[in-house]
Sequence to fold (590 residues):
Amino acid sequence: MRERLQELIADRLTGYAASLGITLPADQIELPAPPDPALGDFAMNLPLKLARVARKAPLAIAGEIADLLRDREVFAKVEVAPPGYINLALAEGAISAALNAIVADTQLQLRTDGAPRTVVLDYSGVNIAKQMHVGHLRSTIIGDVIGRVLEARGERVIRQNHLGDWGLPIAMVLWKAGPALRDLDARGEDPLQALTVADLEQMYRDATAAVKADPHASDAVHRILVALQGGDPRLLADWQTITRLSMQEVYRVYAELGVLLTADDERGESFYRDQLAGTVAALAACGALTESQGAMCVFLEQFTGKDGTPLPVIVRKSDGGYNYETFDLAAIRFRIEGLGADRVIYVTDARQALHFAQVFAVAERCGWTARGDARVALEHVTFGSVLGADGTPLKTRGGENVKLADLLAEAVARAYAVVHEKNPDLPDAEKRAVARAVGIGAVKYSDLRQDRHNDYVFDWDRMLALVGNTAPYLQYAHARICSIFRKGGVEEEAITAAPAVSHPAERALALKLLAFAEVVEAVEAELRPHILCTYLYELATAFSGFYDQCPVLTAETEASKQARLALCRAARRTLARGLELLGIEAPREM
Fold:
C-alpha cells in the first residue's frame, strides 16, 4: 500500500518539482506514520526538503502540493500543518479496496516482482554423533524463518545443512563404535534400532579421555582418520551408519520444532572432501597463497592480530591436512558455481564472525563472487546466546548443555497445564495437539522476538503467558477470530462484503493489515525475524482493540456484521500467514 501511494504521489509531483527546477526521484518520497494518529494515516515532510532547494516558504509549497493531492477516491483528508507538513488520511474506500485485493491473493501480495534469485541458505549445522542441545536452537529456527520468508517473497531457496561429519571427532567415534557395530552385526541386530545418539556421544567422550591419557590411543585414532579419508570400505560403511543414526534423531527434533530441513538438504563436510585440493589450487592460481612455516596461507591486510601482524587464513596445514577454512571455501565455490547462488546466507553464532569475515574476504580476493556487472552476496547472520536466570549460557544443574529434545518436551508439558486450565472441556486429544502447538511455538517465538544480535534470558513463565508479546497471545488471538466464525456459523469463503473501516478501531486494524507485505519485505532485506514478531504482536493488539469496541455477530445491521466479518477474515489470514512464516502453528481453538 505504501509503495502504491508513493508511486501515485511521485506521478503527481514530478512535474511540480520540475517547475521548481528540482528533479524528484520516487525514492525520495517518504510516508512515515505521523506522531499523532488523529492527524492522519501518513505525514509528508517533502515540502521542507523542497523549500531548501527552491528557496520558497515551506508552507506555500505544502499548500500547492496539497492541492495536487486532493483526490476523494484516495484521500479523505489532505491538510497542511506548520512548518510545512502535509497530513494524509486515506479514504475508507481506498483502504477497503486495498485490503480486499490483499485477501483475494492467496499469497497476501507478499511476492516480489521480477525473476526469482537463487539463495543458498546454510543453517542448523549439526554435528554427527552428538545430541542437539539448546545451542542449536537459534541457528535452526532463525534460518528456518529466513528460508520461509525468502520463499514467500518468491525467491528460490536451496537449504544446506552443513554437517560436522568428517575429521578427527568422527575418527574418535569410529574407534569406539567399530567393535560395537561388529558385535551387533554378529547378532543380526540393526544398529539404527539398537544404538542411540546418546551412546555415540558417550563413545566420543570415552575416546577423548583415552586420547588425552594414552599416546597409543591417539595413534590408533589417527590411523583410523587416515584410513577413513583414504576410502577404507568398512570405515566408510560404519561412518554412514553413524551418520544415519545421528540424523534420524535430528529429524525427530526437526519435526518437533516444525522446521523444513530434510535429508535432501544435508551437505556435510564430507561432501567437499574431494574438492579441497582443487580449492587450494584455485587459490594458488589467483595469486592468493603464501607459504608460512610449511603451511599454505592467505594473508589479508584488513585482518591483523593485537600486535599488528597479519592473521593467516590457513588452507593447508604443514602436515598436508585441511581445516574448517578450506571446507568453507570449497563450499562457497560449490554454492556459486554448482548451485548458481545469487546470494549465500550463513546463520551461525556471533563467535564465528571473524572466521566468516576472513573466508568471505578470500572469496572476494579471488573473484569467485564476481558475476558480470553484479556480484554474489555473501552474508553472515549472527546471533547471541540463550542464557539462564543467572545470566550465563543456559545449562543443566549438572553444568551440561540442555538437550533440545528435553527442552521441547518440557515446553509441551507446561503448555498442556496452561491449556487444561484455560479450556478444561476440550477433549484430551485436542488438548495435547494444542499443547504441542503452544509449547513449541512459545519456545520458538520467545527466541525469534528478540533482536537476533542480542543474548536473552530463557524464562518459562514469560514465554507461556497468554498476555504480552508471546506466541500464546498471538495464537489465542487467532483462535478467538476462529471462534467468531464458529459461533456465527459462517464460512470464510462465503463472505462477499468489503471490510469495514469507519470506526477508529476498524481503521486502525485495517491499516495495520495493509502493512504486512511491507514488514515481510523488511525481514527479507534485514534478515531479522523479530521485525515480523513485533508486527504480529501489534496486529493482535489492534485486533483486540477492534474486538472490544466493535461487536461482530451482534452488530447493529447485517451490512455492518458482514463488513466486520470481512475484516476478521483478513486479520485471521494475516495472523495465520505471519505465524506460518515463523514456523509456528495457529490453532483454531485453545
The domain at 2-90 is CATH 3.30.1360.70 (Gyrase A; domain 2). The CA atoms of residues 340 and 579 lie 30 Å apart. The mean pLDDT is 93.
